[in-house]
Amino acid sequence: MTHVEILMLLQFIGIAAFAVSGALVAGERQMDWFGVMVLGVIVAVGGGTVRDLLLDVPVFWMAAPWYVLLAGCVALATIPFARFAHRVRRPVAIADAVGLAVFVSLGTRKALEMETSGFVAVVMGVITGIAGGVIRDVLANRTPTILRKEVYALAALCGALLFVFADWMGLPPLLTFWISSGVVLIIRLLAIFYNWSIPTLKVEPGEQD
């Protein structure tokens, strides 16, 4: 397989995993089938949409509607298997890690191609990877995953930073992409398999005046 074919395959995997994660959250909140499709699509394309709006460029899925169609179909296809959700959470989390790795690198690269600063490129890379999940959680009325103990946004941040650094060092674009994606994937998989988490801040509620 060529690099382009491998990249497309990884995007398919990532979009499908993001869509399934959105569908599972919709099921936990007992949403109807339309809600399942909406949350699945939002997770899959939300991050890239926010990125493109901030960069003031055409939104990517408008030129390639298959992103939305694939996410919607996968989300709806999840419905018959909802009863087995407890068995597929880890495989979905692993596939989600692949999607996160790919989308963070793609988002960072796109920002750099727009000749933004390294700082902006890092922010755009992180947004591409996590914004869809944040929107999903807000719509589902729950605390966003990235604001809890998950090592998720941190993995995205490390990958985006490494991408910008490698690009600054003049490494070949293909090598830069794989290094950045590999770091995100490794950190996320280690967090999944070893239950890594970020320490939480606990403050006792004060008395009401």
From TrEMBL:
Keywords: Cell membrane, Membrane, Transmembrane, Transmembrane helix. It comes from Parvibaculum lavamentivorans (strain DS-1 / DSM 13023 / NCIMB 13966). Signal peptide: none annotated. The chain crosses the membrane at residues 6-26, 33-54, 66-85, 92-112, 118-139, 151-171, 177-196. It is a multi-pass membrane protein. This is Glycine transporter domain-containing protein. The lineage of its organism: Bacteria, Pseudomonadati, Pseudomonadota, Alphaproteobacteria, Hyphomicrobiales. PANTHER family: INNER MEMBRANE PROTEIN, UPF0126 INNER MEMBRANE PROTEIN YADS-RELATED. It comes from the Bacteria. It is found in: Cell membrane.
